[in-house]
Design brief:
Layout lengths: L6 E2 L2 E2 L16 E4 L5 H12 L3 E6 L2 H13 L3 E6 L5 H15 L4 E4 L14 H29 L3 E6 L12 H21 L4 E8 L8 H4 L2 H8 L13 H8 L10 E4 L7
Parallel strand pairs: 3-4, 3-6, 4-5, 6-7, 7-8, 8-9
Antiparallel strand pairs: 1-2
Helix pairs in contact: 3-4, 4-5
């Protein structure tokens, strides 16, 4: 019977052109923004378990230290770096520090993000700038700095931007968030085209509603239940539901993919 690569009985047979299991990341350096909590924290653990050396970046020193201890206890390798993705000087210094301490960056997960939920008429300029600066400008600043380092290193690499179903579907009272994530989607495609000649693949994951500690209470509320009822699969996702897309884009399994946006949303966008 055929398995994932083709097998007979219990013996896996790799195709002649495949020399390694593609989802392993042994020894590769993965920089993850927004790693202090939520999805970024989960992504750090996932990539570490696949063998990557994780550069966990965020603004909370204490939460990052907890993450490093968790990964180390699990047998992985991780280091923490303080990073504000809206500060270009801090971004440049962090990319340099990661490279000097861990080696050339092979994988970037541009995850840091923020949402301000209020009616559009109540959104002021400060609200707008906060969301756009973090979600869109931050993706550009970090992606640009890491891409320059990848070009200088000459080995290319993988950039994974975290977009959202909000890039294609309107979420109520989230105008700045929707705009920022739509920008991330188009930026991903534009950079994929420009940087392909350097061996840099730029793709994005667009999650739907994913339950984290920050939104758990909302999804357990009556309003949260109504939101879930509008999702074709009638459930919200967990961080683990993003692991398949993450490992695909971070590993050699996606070697012929760039400019792709992978929706992981329980059918929300299609519905």
């Amino acid at each position: 019977m055929y398995g994932r690569y083709g097998s007979y009985g219990d013996t896996t047979v790799l195709p002649s052109n495949v020399t390694e299991i593609p989802y392993r990341l042994d020894g590769q350096v993965a920089l993850i923004t927004g790693a202090s909590r939520g999805l970024g924290r989960h992504f750090a653990r996932t990539l570490s378990r696949a063998g990557a050396k994780v550069a966990a970046c965020g603004r909370s020193k204490d939460l990052l230290q907890e993450l490093i201890e968790e990964i180390t206890a699990d047998g992985g390798s991780a280091w923490s770096f303080r990073l504000d993705v809206t500060d270009s000087a801090n971004v440049a210094a962090t990319v340099k520090s990661v490279t000097e301490n861990l080696g050339p960056i092979n994988i970037l997960v541009n995850n840091a993000g923020i949402a301000i939920i209020k009616p559009a008429l109540d959104v002021d300029e400060a609200d707008w700038d906060t969301v756009i600066d973090t979600n869109l400008k931050g993706v550009w600043l970090v992606g640009h700095a890491v891409a320059r380092a990848m070009v200088e290193n000459g080995n290319g690499g993988k950039i994974i931007n975290i977009a959202s179903v909000a890039s294609t579907t309107v979420l109520g009272r989230a105008s700045s968030y929707c705009a920022s994530k739509a920008g991330v989607t188009q930026l991903t495609r534009a950079l994929a085209v420009e940087w392909a000649r350097h061996g840099i693949q730029v793709n994005a994951i667009a999650p739907g509603y994913i339950q984290t500690d920050m939104n758990r209470e909302f999804f357990e509320s009556p309003l949260g239940h109504k939101v879930v009822e509008r999702i074709p699969q009638r459930k919200i996702g967990t961080p683990g539901d993003l692991d398949g897309a993450l490992m695909l884009l971070a590993s050699n399994a996606s070697r012929f993919m760039t400019g792709s946006i992978i929706l992981v949303d329980g059918g929300h966008d299609a519905g």
